[in-house]
Amino acid sequence: MAGQHGQEAQRAGTPHAQARIDLSAVRANVSRLCEAAGSAEVMAVVKADGYGHGMAAVARAALAGGATWLGVAGMREALALRAAGVPGRLLAWLLTPGDDWNAAVASGVELSAGATWAVRAAVRAAQAVDRPALLHLEAETGLGRGGATADDWRALLETAARAEAAGYVRVVGVWSHLARADEPGHPSCDEQLAAFRSAAGLARRAGLTPDVLHLSNSAATLTLPEAHFDLVRPGLAVYGLSPVPDLAAPSELGLRPAMTLTARLASVKRVPAGQGVSYGHRYRTARETTLGLVPLGYADGVPRHASQAGPVLVAGRRHTVAGTVCMDQFVLDLGDAPAAPGDEVVLFGPGDRGEPGAADWARAAQSISHEIVARIGARVPRTYTGGSASGEL
Ligand SMILES: *Cc1c(COP(=O)(O)O)cnc(C)c1O
C-alpha cells in the first residue's frame, strides 16, 4: 500500500532528494557526438560542474566515450580538473587578469586570448614558470560576447606572433562561438562562418599555424557540419539534452539524458476545498484534496519561475507544481490518489517511466535546458550509475 512506500524508503536510507547521473549515457552521448563530428575531434564542455552533473566524473566518462579535449569557462575549473588528475587536453576560455595564470600555464591548461592583455598575461606566466603558454585566439564573429573584433584582430595576431617568435607562447587554436546555432538555417550562422574563415586566414597570413580551428557548440555539432572544422565543443548534448528542443527530442538525435532528479514526499495531508497553497496563495484547492510536499526549492535549482507550471511524475501520474516554488520546497495537489511521506517524485529524467524531461522544466520556466541542469544546487547529492564517479568503468 501507499504507506509502505514511505517506510521502505526510510529503511533503504535513500536521500530525500537526489540527482542520479548515468555515466554510461554520458559515454554513449559522447560517442554519438564523435560520430556526428566526423573527422573533427570532440571537446566535451564540462564547465559549471559538468552542467550540474559533477565535473570530474563526467569529464572521465566523456574521455572514455571518445572525447580528446575538455573545455571549461574559468581557470579555477581547469585547475580543479587538473587537481583531480583528469587527463586530456584542456581549454579555459573565460579569463580575467587576476586569475592564476602561472598555475594554469605550469599545468598545461590551454588558454583563450581575445585581447592583447591576455597574451601579455600569458607571456608573464610563461616567463615565471619557464614553460610556453598554449593559446587559442578568440575572434568576435558576431556573437557580441568575448573575442577580438575585426578591428582588433590584427593587433592581437601581431602580439601573439611576436610572443610565439620569442618562445613564450604557442598559438595552437583559433576559435569563435555561434549566436544562433540553435536556429538551424539562420543567416547569421553563414555570416559568422565567413567571418571566422576570414579571421583564420589572417592568422595564417600573420605566420601563425594553429592546430585547431573551432566554432561549434552542441547545436552546430549536430546540425551544421560546415562549422565543425578541426574540433567541436558540445556541452548540452554530452548530457543527453537536445540543443534544438523545439525541433528534436534527445532520442531523435541519438542522445540519452544523463540526469534524473527525484525527491521523496516530505508531508502528505488532506485539506478542504478553498485551501490557499504556498506564498501568495497563487493556487487554491478546488475541492477536498491531498497535498504533497516536495523537499526541493529554488535554492536547489527548481526555478521559482516554474511556480504553477513545473511538471512532475508521482506514482506514474503527471502533476503540476501547485502555487509558488519556495526556497526549499514546493507543493503538489495530488487529488485523491493514494500517497504517503517517502513516495518518490520524479522531476525530470530520460523519460523511461513517462517522467518529464529537463526541456519540459525549461519550457515551464521560460528558460533553456542548460539552465535547468546547471543550477541544480550543491544541497542535492549526486549519485552515479553506469561507472564510478572516480572514473573506473
Ligand atoms: C558553454 C559553451 C559551449 C557549449 O555549448 P552547448 O550549447 O552547451 O553545447 C561551447 N563553447 C563555449 C565557448 C561555451 O561557452
UniProtKB/TrEMBL annotation:
Residues the record lists as binding substrate: 145, 327
Single GO term (MF): alanine racemase activity
Domain Alanine racemase C-terminal: from-to ranges: 258-385
Pathway assigned to this chain's UniProt record: Amino-acid biosynthesis; D-alanine biosynthesis; D-alanine from L-alanine: step 1/1
Residues with N6-(pyridoxal phosphate)lysine modification: 47
Cited Pfam families: Ala_racemase_C, Ala_racemase_N
CDD domains: PLPDE_III_AR
Alphabetized NCBIfam families for the sequence: alr
Function: Catalyzes the interconversion of L-alanine and D-alanine. May also act on other amino acids.
Family of the protein in this entry: Belongs to the alanine racemase family.
Identification of the protein by name: Alanine racemase
Organism: Streptomyces nigrescens
Encoding gene, per UniProt annotation: alr
